[in-house]
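User: Show me sequence and structure for the first protein, then do the same for the second.

Assistant: Starting with the first protein.
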Amino acid sequence: MDLADDADFVAGVARLDGAFRRADRFALSGASSVPGLSAAAVRDIASNMDRIDVIETAILPGNRAPRGYSVIASILSQVGGPIDLWRGNRWVRSRAWSEPRNYRLPNGQRRHARLLRVPDTALFPDRFGARSVLFRAGMELGVLNGGVTVVALLRRLTGVAPPPWMSRAAHLIASASHQMGTDEGGMEVSVVGTRDGDMVRDRWSLFASKGDGPFIPAITVRALLRRYETIPPGARPCLGDLMLSDAVAAMSDLSVTQRTTHEMQPTLFREALGERWRDLPICVRRLHSVQDIESFTGRAEVIRGNSLIARFAAFFFRFPKPGRDVALTITKTRTSRGEIWERNFDGRIFRSYLKPSRRHHYRERFWVFDYEQELPVVDGRMSLPVRRGWLIRVPLPRFLLPRSDSVEYEEDGLFRFDVGLYAPLGGGLIVRYRGSVAPSGDPTPGQAAFAVEGVDVGDHADQGPTAGPTSAPCRTRNCSGD
């Protein structure tokens, strides 16, 4: 067993599977916090979910935890550079050390963490059938996080990876600041998915104090050694051999507390619609069930008005140019405040920012304009009429509101839309676009991730004592809008 946390190395051990089986021996790579312990947590808290949408792991060590040169060099080799992450059921090129997020530890401390690539992000998509898999890490001291952010920015600007001397310098700085901060750290694994028709988030968290955090990476090995004679032969990533209960038992003599929490995780439209949600067709619910980032592709017809106000509005808001068969990609991103909608009509992009409002309504912001729209549902068709509006937070009188003749519905198994916007004061049509879109995504995450490496992780991912139930069934239900 090894404690490796390099994604390609951990996946690559599968090449030795045949040799280890013939020798009746086992080799487990990644028997550490990731992916060993994190996979055990996912399997435990998501065991009764119907569908997994997002798996997200975060590691937040205390500043007094030892940081070796190799760990620092590994992090700096990534930051600012491109990484491939499984998001919205497809591989998306992202930047390491981006998309910061805040976490709160049980001691009340807030920690900041950013995206990195680890074995979880490479192996969990195929193992658990999740639509998105994310991992974040961050240090306790803001000045150290800031320093890494500067390194990431330099790489983005120059395209050059940090030289070795920078890792050595960072190691010296980390050692010099060792007595600052605390010896308290944490780890969190959360799974967002569907259970009995409800959107939920289950979270397993661990909090280590009194300097015991550095022992956590070895807990997986410690737990497995207590029953090593039951581990099946073969060489594979450590994804299905550890039970969370065994890991918890193995840390019973440490200053560590752990807990599992459950909470509802409805999307913006599901929360706004309330009882009307069930009246929507599956394809419409599917588009409004995004828990991370997802894209929907299709074709549209675009008609533009010719009045002066229509032309000005189209220029101001970057509405699409007219056309009959226009390629369309809608990308929806869930945020802490609501959702971001990006509409790409054959390269012409305009965005809007959505947030909650009163019951059966939502608010959508286009730059300095903010509109509240109602969500009536009749015969499975959802309309989106404008009810109120603001300009830089100043309420607009009703006669200055645009008119929205917009509807979303299902036809021939596809999500279809017909959006018409009309100017106030009798200004006529601004823009109308209608068409259909369907979810875009790659159905074979494991093969896509490692094609260049020559490793078919899918052949090995389901080996071990929990083979089978954790992978394919989740993936086959991913298209459900429940």
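Switching to the second protein now.
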Amino acid sequence: MFDNLSDPFTGAINAQAPFINRRRLLLNELVTAIAVDGGNRKWLSTRTGLYRVSPDGSQLLETFTDDTTPLPLRSISTLAIDPLSGRLFVQTANGIISYQTTATDPADALSSPTIFPNPVRPDFTGSVGITGLTDNATVKIMDAGGQLVYETRSQGGTAAWNLLDYRGRSVQTGVYLVVVVTAAGTEGVAGKLAVVR
């Protein structure tokens, strides 16, 4: 991690290895590729796997290894992210694979959010995506009675909801209101989401 981001080509640069839980991140690992997603999270590939790290490098958010995924991760040579879709492309010796991340580049201003899938059908097991957001926007999911069901913040221009309420229970069939407010609290938009169980 570098602490002189204003002008890295002039002046002093202080590089430090990030520490997570008092251990140096990727100790003795050769990093083969780096990509940054719309939420400013870092994707790092090594000879042993693929890692997603928080924007400041202080948290290891996700780990993919040969033991945890069927993806061929031992020979990653290049990482690239599509800023509009948030899809991470991973080039290996065996070809290119992709993974749908939960962050896209943020919008300059809020407009009507895109919510997908909509409606959520009974056989759906993933997370609902909400795109077209500004960075770090507050996203509130409310039921038809106006009760808050879930709240999160956008990662770049996207927020994800796993269809669970604050207590970890699956939400019921119904129409849900998705309210989005910018980080500064100066703009807001809303959309609707139908869930069929």
